[in-house]
Structure prediction request, 75 residues.
Amino acid sequence: LYYDTQDLDLYHKHQNKKSNRHKIRSRNYVESGINFLEIKLKNNKGRTVKKRIKIDEIHNDIKHCDLQSEFLQIT
Prediction:
């Protein structure tokens, strides 16, 4: 599940190949049953850096989940 703004800012930055762009998603690994919230940053050197935290469940709206909101603020 990918997250974006109402104006789809993250998607448009990706389509326009902007540097220093982010992708934010929740992902479920089926075989292990583990869920993660992942943030990926593609920098202006073409390098992708991924940070993630383990989460109990995937939510459609992460701003109402304290741990996930906190992770986004510090990342």
Summary: The chain has a mean pLDDT of 84. The radius of gyration is 13 Å. Helices lie at 9-15, 66-74.
